[in-house]
Amino acid sequence: MRIELTQQSGLEVNHLSAADMTPALAAQYLAGTIRLRGFWETLRGLYPAGDLRDQVVRAVTQPGDDPKSVARRVRNWEQGRNAPTDREGLFRIAFALGLDEVQASALLGLCTDYGIHYRNGRELTYAYCLRKGTTYQQAADLYRSLPDPERSPGTGRPGMEGTRQLVSIFADVRDDGEFFRLYESYLDSFGWLHRRAWDYFERYFQALLSPGEGEERYSIQRAAETYLTLHMPSGSRRQDFTLVQRMLKQGWPNATKLKNICARKEDVPRKLLLLLYLVTENVVDGSYDELDEDYLSPEELFEEHWWRVNLMLQDCGMPTLDPRNAYDWLVLYSLNSALRQDETMGERMEAVLAVLFPGKEENA
């Protein structure tokens, strides 16, 4: 299948394939042509009733909040200036709009990288209550009545560490008493970090820290500067950036974040995981891989990489690649390096970023 970059599909412009697009044309598409998938558009699709704004305002308003400030915040979401990133607030919205478990998880993934985290006791409780159709307040009250995973020893279940196992165990629970019993029984399996994402991160990042046999092992700082900068300006100032520039730069990994992730103090961001896939091209050891075979066409190579990336994202509880997300579109463009043998995926991304961020390398 030939992937085209058209306005209609989100993957094509001017009837040119991704392989044919120059970095300048790709940057032009991102800067002014791409139709981004917005938070409010997504909400409108999930809740088409006319009182959407009022429902969201009521959902996110907390005791003591300034009504004008809340209304302004929601209006900014509606106008696409920004989107909420607080998971608790997004759960409040999901309950207020009567979303189901799957819809709520998709909304969380859109705004925060991850869908519902079933090894997080609070989010597991919310998932159960979304399934039952309760209110947010009822869900919060139920969670407060449960043992605290950090203070309660639980019974411990050897081997019961996987999110999928917990999802399966709690999937058919409909009674609060049964939920309480199972929750208490599996306390030792809970945690707030996403283990699968960390496993992938460790696999990719260790390959960057060890560049080759007999070579000196890189420091985290050196690995970040060598492989992950890709012409993205340093610093935190973004007031002079366009919307797409801000979206691409937001959360771009630096050495400090990488050190925290390595120490398991922070979760692995989706943007970082995708970036690591690109710069390593999913090659982290000398094991046989069908992608090395000459009989695969460039189109087949691209499709295989696209499939593998989405499989990784699903395995980590993250949304799959969305051509209407600016960063995801750039990832898809970079994956098409398989169609051009003279450049790597990382080089393909860097070339577009160099056009999008001209003269902004330092302290932007």
Task: Report on this structure.
With 364 residues, this protein is mostly helical. The chain has three domains: 194 residues, no CATH class; 78 residues; 74 residues, no CATH class.
- The whole-number mean of residue pLDDT values reads 86
What would you report as the Rg, rounded to the nearest angstrom?
22 Å
Low-confidence segments, given as residue ranges, are 1-16, 152-160
Q: Total number of β-strand segments?
A: 2
The domain tally reads 3
- What is the N-to-C succession of helices and strands? EEHHHHHHHHHHHHHHHHHH
Largest β-sheet summary: 2 strands, antiparallel
Instruction: Provide a count of the helices.
Output: 18
* Percentage of residues in DSSP E strands: under 5%
Terminal CA distance? 40 Å
Class by SSE composition: mainly alpha
The gross shape turns out to be: globular
Order of adjacent strands in the largest pleated sheet: 1-2
Helix content: 40-55%
Main traits of this protein?
mainly alpha, 3 domains, two-stranded antiparallel ribbon, 2 strands, disordered N terminus
SSE map:
Blueprint: E1 4-6, E2 12-17, H1 23-33, H2 39-46, H3 52-60, H4 67-78, H5 87-96, H6 101-112, H7 121-132, H8 136-145, H9 163-170, H10 176-185, H11 195-209, H12 220-228, H13 243-249, H14 255-262, H15 270-280, H16 298-315, H17 326-335, H18 345-356
Brief summary of the model shown:
This protein is mainly α and 364 residues long.
